[in-house]
């Protein structure tokens, strides 16, 4: 895992998405700006993200609590990014807000 | 998204993992067998999975409830697969069990 999680409970936002490759004007700059703003959001913990060869993304954003997620969703610049995303950049997306109840792991001891 | 979700609440198991590329004897056959057994598990809903270029995987398995997850974790063949995974195939893994509370999405209308 790419960052240190706190003990549960905490929150995960699971995002599956596909960009519309024919219409990405302005996307890269907005994506970078949202990542920067998102990292500065109170309660933001970290993220895991992978992109398949066909462009479908799977991202999990982690937050301390549900209030952090609601505040970020309503951030004025983020609202504008969401509007432009639906208008132009995304073919589809699906978002799930989930409460992490348990977590455990394994690291090979050399 | 690659399958139809029910209305929340339902459960997600978020798995970040990295294989030990030097030691994958028997892994592919076991992985296929576990996928087959896992799909047949009562309460299993579906999965999302992406692998990064460096081999790090991000997988989300979806289940109707926490009892389905607990039953699958204790399945005898799955217990043996977990043991061999820790002994040989995995460099590391991290598993989070989360209750999906809300979900929403967007699909571009052509």
From TrEMBL, chains A, B:
<dbReference type="InterPro" id="IPR011008">
    <property type="entry name" value="Dimeric_a/b-barrel"/>
</dbReference>
<feature type="domain" description="ABM">
    <location>
        <begin position="12"/>
        <end position="83"/>
    </location>
</feature>
<dbReference type="Pfam" id="PF03992">
    <property type="entry name" value="ABM"/>
</dbReference>
<protein>
    <submittedName>
        <fullName>Antibiotic biosynthesis monooxygenase</fullName>
    </submittedName>
</protein>
<dbReference type="InterPro" id="IPR007138">
    <property type="entry name" value="ABM_dom"/>
</dbReference>
<keyword id="KW-0560">Oxidoreductase</keyword>
<keyword id="KW-0503">Monooxygenase</keyword>
<dbReference type="GO" id="GO:0004497">
    <property type="term" value="F:monooxygenase activity"/>
</dbReference>
<dbReference type="InterPro" id="IPR052936">
    <property type="entry name" value="Jasmonate_Hydroxylase-like"/>
</dbReference>
């Amino acid at each position: 895992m790419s960052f240190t999680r706190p003990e549960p409970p905490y929150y995960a936002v699971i995002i599956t998405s596909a960009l519309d490759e024919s219409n990405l004007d302005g996307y890269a700059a907005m994506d970078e700006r949202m990542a920067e703003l998102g990292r500065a959001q109170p309660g933001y913990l970290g993220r895991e993200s992978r992109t398949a060869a066909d462009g479908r993304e799977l991202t999990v954003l982690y937050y301390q609590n549900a209030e952090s997620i609601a505040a970020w969703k309503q951030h004025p610049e983020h609202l504008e990014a969401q509007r432009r995303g639906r208008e132009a950049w995304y073919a589809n997306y699906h978002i799930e807000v989930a409460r992490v109840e348990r977590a455990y792991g394994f690291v090979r001891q050399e």
